[in-house]
């Protein structure tokens, strides 16, 4: 399950309540303190937690149980019976707590769920008793024969637990979708969409459950009703999360989701926030990392309208976040279909993107520059692109991108900087087939910078992909102006085969003592 990475002490503090609850459950044997269980306990919980909080508590508890089961298997492998038994007791308590907590905040549960809860609790009790007997057994041969039974019981507990969690999450998704579909109340619908978004953030498995239960259909239904216009941004954000899985994409295709997104993007009466979130959905469904976009046949039918609207959104973006979403969608579309590059050229997109890069308020992060240089790299295969680049001072921008460095040291930002360096070098290599571009690059001292990136691993953050791109760009520029290189650079970086130069540069990283 998806959990936000946090400091270990903070994680311990968050888990402390659950752990102390677990100890209480050991002592009280799962019996409620209050006699009036249905009234008082329910009142206390409902006053303290919202349905979304309750679901998060359930997911947290489920994550702890899943982790404990994995650790039990590891300790069992090492025959550490004392630890196996103590952890089994703990899992037993956590399972009972989870079932009690869920039954307290849920208003309805199916017969199937009740049966599964009973099976899981009974099997956990059996598991605890079994490990206790193992703890009291000293004969090694007997322990060996019992170990296979313990493993089998552990597998059954994990199986029942997985089935119960799947059923619970499906039940919760169904409840939320029922609220979205049947409620005419703006407040109830907004609350349900918010809870659905939180659920989708827990990972791909949750997104699959939501998609299978008709989540994409229900959300697009909201996006087609004017009375819910104020909920469009939130609804589209949830759709973008769900459409990261194949089931979500299939549902999107079935309900003509592409046409709906195109209508939203081209409707000027919608807010910028709505347009930005629609762009985010487009960016998600056209991601080059997904392997299941081939069935989006309707996208090609609406591509020109969508690309035109996204270019306009880039041009009129009031913030870096809006520009990032719109440019990310455009960047992905240029991978999705080559016709998009020709449309962008006709729309003077190159000029708009290059102008945006000079505005530090709009293009303010390596992530935004990564999207811009991706579009430039994909457009650079077109012959007409070279003149557009030179007229818009694009070569100067590409040169600046070769110096891209992370200011924070954050791994994601460092990776973005590497991509910017690599793609700017690739773009230079492609565009330098045009003598005018090559001449401009040489005048801006691109050759010395490319040489430094090749020879200094720290300048490229030890990235092999940046190295290969720089070697390719250097060789293309050297062919246009061989006088710009010293003999040693020519002999090592240009004259040999590319693979030999690559190996020479990567070996510079090694240090022999």
TrEMBL record:
Domain of life from the UniProt record: Eukaryota
SUPFAM superfamilies hit by this protein: ARM repeat
This protein's GO CC annotations: apical cortex
A UniProt-annotated Pfam family: Insc_C
Positions of the Protein inscuteable homologue C-terminal domain: 61-513
Ranges for domain Protein inscuteable homologue LGN-binding: 4-48
Database matches in InterPro entries: ARM-like, ARM-type_fold, Armadillo, Insc_C, INSC_LBD, INSC_LBD_sf, Inscuteable
GO MF entries: cytoskeletal anchor activity
GO biological process terms held by the UniProt record: apical protein localization; asymmetric cell division; establishment of mitotic spindle orientation; regulation of asymmetric cell division
SMART domains referenced in this protein's UniProt entry, alphabetically: ARM
Protein name: INSC protein
Organism: Rhipidura dahli
């Amino acid at each position: 399950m998806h959990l936000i990475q946090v400091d270990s002490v903070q994680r311990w503090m968050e888990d402390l309540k659950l752990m102390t609850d677990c100890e209480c459950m050991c002592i009280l044997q799962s019996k409620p303190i209050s006699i009036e269980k249905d009234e008082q306990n329910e009142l206390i919980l409902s006053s303290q937690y919202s349905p979304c909080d309750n679901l998060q508590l359930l997911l947290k508890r489920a994550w702890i149980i899943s982790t404990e089961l994995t650790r039990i298997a590891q300790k069992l492998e090492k025959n550490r019976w004392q630890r196996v038994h103590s952890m089994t007791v703990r899992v037993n308590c956590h399972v009972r707590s989870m079932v009690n907590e869920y039954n307290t905040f849920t208003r309805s549960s199916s017969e199937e769920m009740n049966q599964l809860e009973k099976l899981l609790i009974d099997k956990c009790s059996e598991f605890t008793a079994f490990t206790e007997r193992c703890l009291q057994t000293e004969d090694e041969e007997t322990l060996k024969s019992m170990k296979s039974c313990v493993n089998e019981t552990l597998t059954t507990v994990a199986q029942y637990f997985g089935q119960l969690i799947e059923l619970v999450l499906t039940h919760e998704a169904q409840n939320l979708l029922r609220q979205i579909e049947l409620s005419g109340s703006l407040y109830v619908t907004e609350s349900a969409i918010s809870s659905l978004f939180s659920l989708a953030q827990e990972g791909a498995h949750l997104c699959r459950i939501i998609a299978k239960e008709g989540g994409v259909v229900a959300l697009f239904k909201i996006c087609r009703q004017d009375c819910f216009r104020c909920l469009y941004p939130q609804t589209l954000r949830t759709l973008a999360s769900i459409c990261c899985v194949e089931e979500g994409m299939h549902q999107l295709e079935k309900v003509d989701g592409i046409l709906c997104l195109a209508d939203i993007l081209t409707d000027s009466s919608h807010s910028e926030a709505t347009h930005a979130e629609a762009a985010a959905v487009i960016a998600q469904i056209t991601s080059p990392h997904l392997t299941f976009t081939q069935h989006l046949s309707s996208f090609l039918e609406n591509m020109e309208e969508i690309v035109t609207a996204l270019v306009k959104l880039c041009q009129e973006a009031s913030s870096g976040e809006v520009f990032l979403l719109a440019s990310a969608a455009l960047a992905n579309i240029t991978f999705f279909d080559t016709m998009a590059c020709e449309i962008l050229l006709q729309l003077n997109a190159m000029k708009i993107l290059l102008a945006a890069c000079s505005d530090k308020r709009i293009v303010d992060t390596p992530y935004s520059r990564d999207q811009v240089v991706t579009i430039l790299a994909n457009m650079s295969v077109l012959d007409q692109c070279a003149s557009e680049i030179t007229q818009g001072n694009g070569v100067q921008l590409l040169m600046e991108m070769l110096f891209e460095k992370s200011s924070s040291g954050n791994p994601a930002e460092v990776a973005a900087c590497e991509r910017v360096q690599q793609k700017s070098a690739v773009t230079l290599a492609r565009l330098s087939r045009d003598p005018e571009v090559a001449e401009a690059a040489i005048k801006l001292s691109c050759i010395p910078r490319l040489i430094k990136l090749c020879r200094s691993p720290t300048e490229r953050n030890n990235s092999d992909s940046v190295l290969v791109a720089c070697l390719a760009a250097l060789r293309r520029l050297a062919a246009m102006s061989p006088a710009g290189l010293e003999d040693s650079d020519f002999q090592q970086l240009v004259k040999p085969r590319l693979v030999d130069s690559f190996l020479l540069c990567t070996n510079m990283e090694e240090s022999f003592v």
